[in-house]
Amino acid sequence: MPGETGALTAGVAVLVTSLAAVVGPLVGIPPWTIALAAGGLLAALTADAALFSGRGGHLLAETLPGGTRRLRRIALHEAAHGLVANAEAVPVRRVLVGTWAALRAGVSSGGCTEFDLPAKAKMSLTDLRRWSRVLLAGMVAEELIYGESIGGADDRAQLGRLWGLSGHDVATAQREQRQARREVKRWLGERRQELEERAETLLRVAPRLGRS
Fold this sequence. Notes:
This protein starts with a helix and ends in a 7-residue tail after the last helix. Mean pLDDT is 80; it is low at 1-12 and 47-54. By secondary structure, it is mainly alpha-helical. The chain has 9 helices and 2 strands. Helix 4 runs antiparallel to helix 6 (125-146) and helix 4 (67-87) crosses helix 9. It folds into 2 domains: 2-53, no CATH class; 68-205, CATH 1.20.58.760. Strands 1-2 form a two-stranded antiparallel sheet.
């Protein structure tokens, strides 16, 4: 949850600051300098959480050497959307990997795969099944490679909206989505190498702050 993440980040910042207050004087850093830095850090964290939903922290994290791990997971998620969309004959408008790419495109996200959504609100069951596979693909890929999914909130919301407008009851929607998830998991499992190669390609071209 965003709120929990912000609280955890602030807690870690307070802990680091407390340790710095103890160690700082031993290495010649005045206490007032540490206090000033701590205040600035907490203010920045608060502003980032309130105004940018934590994206500033994500942007900074992605510029660091360890940020590649985060970007690779995003790339895998988006690669799965692309593979399944191609198989389902769903055109992909564009793919964004990373917070910097999303910010430059004016999108509030850490990454996304954009489609031209259906023109009509109420779709046939066949089309609903197809869109279920496409929208669930990113989450399923994360589960396949990492054991769990931490992304996909927008995908779930979009899928829920499509099924909500369909006129089908909740039990049918849930059953069909479970079936779609199983189908995608099997399909991606058979193409795992292709999935990972596509993710690496997206990762290589993903822009980061300070890098074109």
